UniProtKB/TrEMBL annotation:
EC number(s) reported in the record: 2.7.7.7
Organism whose genome encodes this protein: Pseudoduganella flava
Location, primary (coarse class): cytoplasm
Entry protein name: DNA polymerase IV
NCBIfam families found in the cross-reference section: PRK02406.1
Reactions listed under catalytic activity: DNA(n) + a 2'-deoxyribonucleoside 5'-triphosphate = DNA(n+1) + diphosphate
Cofactor(s), by name: Mg(2+)
């Protein structure tokens, strides 16, 4: 029997990414609780003496959500996706900054380019995270990890956290263990000590529903999943998922780091924290909708595609799902155009019922270079039109 040589896989994730980018231009806020979110309102104002006046979280009125927060704000319990008003109750004095996706995309490109000069095998996983295959690199693991962190810092002024492990599953878990500015290296031998005590939901693929179901069986940690009776898991989760649970809880994962692929369509969807209504939750929905389109535009730009067909997926509170799509005369890839087309689709679905999920997809893809598509900034108030 031949066994594959052990791999060295890294997961790199930027620390408090959007907030950290903001602190580069507002260094006077460093060390303070800062929250990014609430759309594009609440721009800082430069006073006559050259100092800047910032909004505070307590000034916020509306139904928007927190995009991200600095670690100082997290100490008050303020995290991504929390309602801004709830966040304001926890940290009224926190500084509030509007989102600026163009900057985040620019820094995203910068840190990825810096990493690619050291390790060519990069799998792009979104605006602030990547996987790397370090297996063939001559440097020892810690030296290489430090080198990657230094390159990111040098190119952007920002810190990141890196997990290095024999596979993607463990690397992703590890990048989170010593945040911020972490470098965590684990081997299979470390799994019982470092991974088993963690909550089961730390595994990418054990979502809130599966975690709740496990908890109902008295299974809270990864280790408890590993030691659970396979028959019990199979009974509650089906054969495939139970088998997958067994493998991941022992730290096994064979997925390769994939540097490129040719997609048919690219989509983003999000399940709301609570069911939302088109009228009563218009502001929150509008923001979520815009963010979905912005992230989708970001995915398209990163993968260098534009597409002619824009699809909308909507799941109601009762789990009925409807989809609509629209095919445009020319391929698009920018957030505003996607938002407009998806908004058109939205007009063609009934909106009386509360919704639990919203998804947007762009298909009929062509490489961006052939599309002649133009990138324009996103508009934020289009939900109103629907
Ligand atoms: N983001 C978002 N909506 C969310 C979660 C995140 O728009 N519900 C954005 C803001 C984050 C960025 O994506 O800055 C990256 O997400 P992460 O989960 O990596 O969060 P951070 O980078 O902010 O923090 P951490 O240091 O925990 O990675
Ligand atoms: Mg991050």
């Amino acid at each position: 029997m031949t066994t594959a040589p052990p791999r060295r896989i890294a997961h790199l994730d930027m620390d408090a990414f959007f907030a950290s980018v903001e602190l580069l231009r507002y260094p006077e806020l460093r060390g303070h609780p800062v929250v990014v979110g609430g759309g594009s309102r609440h721009q800082p104002v430069t006073l006559a003496d050259g100092t800047r006046k910032f909004s505070r979280l307590r000034d916020y009125v509306g139904r928007g959500v927190v995009t991200t927060s600095t670690y100082e704000a997290r100490a008050f319990g303020v995290f991504s996706a929390m309602g801004m008003m709830k966040a304001a109750a926890l940290a009224p004095d926190a500084f509030l900054l509007p989102t600026d996706f163009d900057s985040y995309r620019r820094y995203s490109r910068l840190f990825k380019a810096a990493v690619a000069t050291i390790v060519p095998h990069v799998e792009d996983r979104g605006v602030d995270e990547i996987y790397l295959d370090l297996t063939d690199h001559p440097d020892d693991t810690r030296t290489l990890g430090m080198k990657l962190k230094a390159a990111v810092k040098e190119a952007t002024g920002l810190t990141c956290s890196i997990g290095i492990a024999p596979n993607k599953l463990l690397a992703k878990i590890c990048s989170d263990l010593e945040k911020p500015d972490g470098l965590t290296i684990v081997s299979y031998d470390d799994v019982p000590v470092r991974i088993w005590p963690l909550a089961a939901k730390k595994i990418n693929g054990i979502g809130p529903k599966a975690a709740a179901k496990l908890a109902a069986l008295g299974i809270e940690t990864v280790g408890q999943v590993a030691l659970a009776d396979p028959k019990l898991l199979q009974e509650h989760f089906g054969l495939n998922y139970a088998e997958w649970l067994r493998r991941v809880s022992h730290g096994h994962d064979e997925r390769a780091v994939v540097t490129t692929h040719e997609p048919k369509g690219i989509s983003r969807e999000t399940t709301f924290e609570r069911d939302l209504h088109a009228k009563h939750d218009r502001e929150a929905l509008s923001e979520i909708f815009t963010r979905l389109c912005t992230r989708l535009a970001d995915d398209l730009e990163r993968k260098r595609y534009a597409g002619r067909t824009v699809g909308l997926k909507l799941r109601y509170a009762d789990f009925r799902t409807v989809t609509r799509d629209v095919t445009l005369p020319a391929p698009i890839c920018d957030a505003a155009a996607i938002r407009r087309a998806a908004g058109e689709c939205l007009r063609r679905v009934p909106l009386e019922q509360r919704m639990r999920l919203l998804g947007v997809r762009v298909s009929a893809l062509v490489p961006i270079e052939e599309a002649g598509a133009r990138v324009v900034p996103v508009q934020r108030d289009l939900f109103e039109e629907s």
